[in-house]
Write a structure and sequence with these properties.
4-stranded antiparallel β-sheet; 8 strands; mainly beta; 156 residues; 2 helices
């Protein structure tokens, strides 16, 4: 069973869109004598299929020696706000639900993920962020929505 989950995670990593977040700021939350301080970082990424929508994610990042060498496990605490930042254009028809972003939150096994879920009744794009691990994840999550007012969202 674990092998099956690991294989599915590897396939998802290959198939998932290659979206990278840009760090636009951070604040220190705890001083660490050796290594970087614990902090909250703010990152932004653009939806890879919906032009004109950007998502801002804030999340905790562990510092110290483990954080400096990439071995720390970041806490599952985050927030998300997606906004229309320009004219909305759909590069292709959207799936009802699709992962649009993922980033490592630990050395190997933990990821922060953002999933776009289309609400066709209200013509809105919702974005859900959460973290997972290969074996178990966290119920901590955050959600935001972007209303599409001038056109119908194309669904596959």
């Amino acid at each position: 069973m674990r092998l099956r989950i690991a294989v599915m995670a590897c396939v998802a990593a290959i198939v998932a869109p290659a979206v990278h977040a840009e760090e636009i700021g951070s604040v220190d939350t705890a001083f660490k004598l050796i290594g970087p301080d614990h902090k909250v970082v703010v990152e932004v990424f653009d939806d890879p299929i919906v032009e004109g929508v950007s998502c801002y994610v804030s999340r905790a990042r562990t510092g110290g020696v483990k954080g400096a060498v990439g071995l720390a496990k970041d806490p599952s605490r985050f927030s998300i706000a997606c906004r229309q930042v320009g004219p909305i254009k759909f590069r292709q028809a959207l799936k009802q639900q699709e992962e649009v972003f993922k980033e490592s939150a630990s050395f190997i096994f933990k990821k922060v993920r953002v999933v776009r879920i289309v609400d066709p009744k209200r013509n809105a794009l919702t974005y859900l962020t959460y973290s997972d691990k290969i074996i178990d994840g966290s119920p901590d999550n955050a959600i935001t929505a972007v209303a599409v007012l001038d056109q119908k969202i194309p669904l596959k």
